[in-house]
Automatic annotation (TrEMBL):
Listed InterPro entries: AlphaKG_dependent_hydroxylases, TauD-like_sf, TauD/TfdA-like
Name of protein: TauD/TfdA family dioxygenase
All residue ranges annotated as the TauD/TfdA-like domain in the record: 52-340
Keyword Iron annotated: yes
Any one GO molecular-function label of the UniProt entry: dioxygenase activity
Region Disordered: start-end pairs: 331-358
A Pfam family this chain is assigned to: TauD
Lineage: Bacteria, Bacillati, Actinomycetota, Actinomycetes, Streptosporangiales
Keyword Chaperone: no
Keyword terms: Antibiotic biosynthesis, Dioxygenase, Iron, Oxidoreductase
Compositional bias annotation for Acidic residues: 346-358
The protein's required cofactors: Fe(2+)
Amino acid sequence: MTTDMTNPLASRGTGTPVRTVRRRAIRVSDGELVSIDAEAGLAVVVRPRMAGVDLAGWLRDHREQVERLLHQRGAVRLRGFGVATAADFEAVSHSLGPGLLDYVYGSTPRSREKGSVYTSTEYPPDQVIPQHNEMAYSRRWPMKLWFFCKIAAAAGGETPLADSRRVLARLDPALRRRFAERGVRYVRNYGGGLDLSWQQVFETDRREQVESVCRTLRISYEWLPDDRLRTWQVCQAVANHPVTGEAAWFNQAHLFHPSNLPADVRESLLATAGQDDLPRNALYGDGAPIEDAALEEIRAAFAAETVAEPWDEGEVLLIDNVLMSHGRRPYDGPRKVLVAMTDPNPDPDGDAEREDAQ
């Protein structure tokens, strides 16, 4: 097994494209179109009652119902609807929102598949991607995540889920309060071959474009010698859902902190790069170090709440990004999962709400 020194998480999906099957949409009474199973697992499962149901059309026509399920459970699995291609998936992911978001200021390697549809994180198949909420290291994140399993792995490769509300409830109240009051400072150093380059992260090779994004997202930055860049930003540790008002654990301190790395890799990086030049780091918002014991408690809370279900090929998974975290299990054989992001959180340039963590 090989370990990438800079993987704060840990996907690479390849394989033969699935043959496209075009079906004519069937219009019958709404009650006959789908079945909804709220007892199948952590996520609600929706299936068509007959072949040819137009998933994108059904989602548009039943947006309020889907949103209600999403806010109650945090995730909805859409199985058996005949979604087969990136174009099919793009149409589905447009059904509940005004448009798709680009993966600018991302933290992991991905490739554009079509428009703003991306591959899932391209880390080796033997690596685990720990639970996380997408872009919780930023003040601007997508409220909805769409996943599409184009090719299911022969074994493993699940996208586990964990309810962020329940993760928060498992944490010691003093820990919750400390993080909620102080926030999390994310420090990233780009370049030098240890992590993603700033050109990859900001999807540009123009410094002025990087600076514009940083100003918009209120990210502090500093250009370093040898075409390197350092950014830092203080973000929320706990977020209140803008619709339900519920508090959820919402940060990536446990991923960015060097304790997420194998001990030998952490020691090597600290010896060669030093604390200030680590590819990425997480501190309390005031710059004080986060205790390893606190991060161990956070990881244990995620582990206790994580549920993994195997993918069905052609399945679409819709996640409320504040209420539900996701990850990835190791896998064997080809696997290809695509991702789309929609609905930026309200007031992205302002400070995220913080819970009093009582």
